[in-house]
Amino acid sequence: MPNEEELKTIEKLEGIRKSIEKQKPILCLDFDGVCHSYTSGWQGIDVIPDKPVDGLFEFIEKAKDVFDIQIFSTRSKSIEGISAMRQWFNVHWTEYLFRTRPELQKKYYFFEIDFLSFPQEKPPAFISLDDRTLTFTGIFPEPEKLLSFKAWNKS
Fold first, then answer.
1. Do residues 29 and 35 lie in contact, with contact meaning Cβ atoms separated by under 8 Å?
2. Are 117 and 17 in contact (CB under 8 A)?
3. pLDDT for 84-111, tens place per residue?
4. Alpha carbon distances (Å) from 26 to 3, 19, 29, 74, 138
5. Which residue from 40, 32, 47, 28 is spatially nearest to 151, judged by alpha carbons?
6. Does an H or E element contain 129, and which?
7. Nearest partner of 55 among 29, 34, 32, 39, judged by Cα
8. Using an 8 Å Cβ cutoff, are 45 and 78 in contact?
9. How far is CA 44 from the centre of its chain?
10. Is 17 helix (H, G, I), strand (E, B) or coil?
11. What SS3 state is found at 130?
């Protein structure tokens, strides 16, 4: 677990990265149910046992040129949660690259997905992808109707 000085350095570097990315609009991706398939349900803030949602990394490869991609989750409230999400992304990003570009396995052992950020607060996103959100159209729905909501992977 990073100490306070390391956390300050991480925050400073994150700020520098964000200022570089400012020309791109922010795309906020929810983690559980959008990136992480979440088939096992909640196991703990730093326990992430499931595979990526199909097509995640193909989407990220396209979107990173257009958007500043930020991952936000209930896990984002703790350093342990953010560290677990970073590690999960690095492991699955490496697997994705080795699967889609086998020649990389001869040169590299591991890849860090360094173009994503993991804010501790919900970012001022241009747009968000979340499996548990409805688009507000200016008309409030009936509360009882909201109770019948089902996420895409629960329908």
1. yes
2. yes
3. 999 999 999 999 999 999 999 888 888 9
4. 29, 12, 10, 18, 23
5. 32
6. strand 127-129
7. 34
8. yes
9. 17
10. helix
11. coil
Nearest to 68 by CA among 29, 96, 31: 29
Indicate the residue type of 53: V
Residue type, 118: F
**Greater confidence, 15 or 5?**
5
**Spatial contact of 10 and 120, defined as CB atoms under 8 Å apart:** no
Close Cβ partners of 124 (under 8 Å, ≥ 6 residues apart): 26
Got the DSSP string for 88-127? HHHHHHHHHHHHH-GGGGGT-S----TT-B--SS----SE
Tokens 């703790």: give the residue.
78
Please provide the DSSP assignment of 63-85 as one string. Answer: HTTTSEEEEE-GGGGSHHHHHHH
Q: Return the percentage of the chain with pLDDT > 90, whole number.
A: 77
CA distance 119 to 28: 10
The predicted model scores a pTM of 0.81
Amino acid symbol at 150: K
> CA 107, CA 56: separation in Å to the nearest integer?
24
